[in-house]
Amino acid sequence: MSTILEISRAIGEQLKTGWRPRRTIIFASWDAEEPGILGSFEFAEDFMIALKHKAVAYINMDSAAGGIQMLKMRSTPNLISLLYDAANKTESPKSPYKSMYEFWIGTEKEYNDIDYQLPPVQLIGSGSDYTAFLNEIGVSCVDFAYKNDHGTYPVYHTQYDTYEWLSTFGDQDFTYHKHLGDFAARTLLSLANDEILPLSAVDYANKIQELTLSLINKNPDKISELDLDITGMMILAQSFVDAATKFQDHVSSYSNATDESGIKLRNINDKLMLMDRQFIHEQGLPGRPHSGISYLLQALQILMLDLLFQE
Questions:
Q1: Nearest of 268, 290, 296, 284 to residue 56 by alpha carbon
Q2: Helices (H), 113-169
């Protein structure tokens, strides 16, 4: 919470100079996350119509100080390039890494001995306050957090999870808080200020194709045993990549000099903003109706697990 408060304080200082963001920024702190993410769900349900039409993205910071060794980033695919860009512009909380990008990828090598070509970003699903925004409405989401190589910090969910423990054993001088706040603030300001929303249709399409191929390559026997026709799935995944690439070329060629009314810009941003909404299915997944709505991008991962553990 302290990181969110510091970001809001810094933006408040900018407001005093007369600066205003292009898009509205809302800061929120939710009650009752542990009993069932109740506070954020109630907000999402109360303002669902407005959020469906206007919400660009949701940034979550549930456990900003969950560790200090590595970054733990979860996101919808369309935000990944933005995260890489913001990380490259943010200083690292520790040496010898110069940027948060170097810290992100370097600490995975340092602690897990994994040599990633790009910093790892997990596909976001559920488990924190972004759940309602992603699964009920289809808002693009990202979750900022640190982690340790052995999991979360040792006093998590105990009575010892206090300021005294954090300032003595966790992040003594709050360096890691500061740099994660800087990273999140840069991401936030790009979403709020960039003329064209920094959301990538190509990254989204590539992730779907990657998940599709992974599903097929890891489960050839099960696919054959169940006599599943995956040709159509492969064709659709490639079609999405082709369409996203064409759209991204259109976005790159945009110029406000030929768009005096701003209609073309609005059309581009609406398509980028509403992309995640297209993966919301009112009936939910088969056998997993939840509240009647489900985020279909998780379906590929769920189907993969079903095939792996099916008797």
A1: 268
A2: 131, 163-165
Q: Alpha carbon 115 to chain centroid distance?
A: 22
Contacts made by residues 238-247, CB under 8 angstroms, sequence distance 24+: 238/209, 240/205, 240/208, 240/209, 241/202, 241/205, 241/206, 241/209, 243/205, 244/201, 244/202, 244/204, 244/205, 244/206, 245/202, 245/205, 247/201, 247/271
User: Are 104 and 113 a contacting pair, CB within 8 Å?
Assistant: no
Residue 59, SS3 per DSSP = strand
Which alpha helices (DSSP H) does the chain contain, by range? 2-16, 38-46, 48-54, 80-88, 100-112, 131, 163-165, 175-193, 201-218, 220-225, 231-252, 263-273, 297-309
| Paired tokens of 18 | 């007369």
Element (H, E) at 146: strand 146-147
Residue type, 237: A
Instruction: Please give the Cα distance from 26 to 135 (Å, whole number).
Output: 20
pLDDT in tens, the chain (311 residues): 788 999 999 999 999 999 999 999 999 999 988 888 899 999 999 999 999 999 999 999 987 777 778 898 999 999 999 999 999 999 999 999 999 999 999 999 998 888 999 999 998 888 899 999 998 899 999 999 888 877 677 888 888 888 898 888 888 888 999 999 999 999 999 999 999 999 999 999 999 999 888 888 888 888 888 887 888 888 989 999 999 999 999 999 988 878 888 899 999 999 999 999 988 877 766 676 654 455 666 655 555 555 544 44
Walk across the sheet containing 57-60 and list its strands.
57-60, 140-143, 74-75, 122-123
The single-letter DSSP state of residue 124 is P
CA 202 vs. chain centroid, Å, equals: 15
Residue 35 DSSP class? T
What's the gap between Cα 196 and its chain centre? 18
CA proximity to 271, closest of 290, 253, 250, 241: 250
User: Under DSSP, is residue 99 helix (H, G, I), strand (E, B) or coil?
Assistant: strand
Identity of residue 21: P
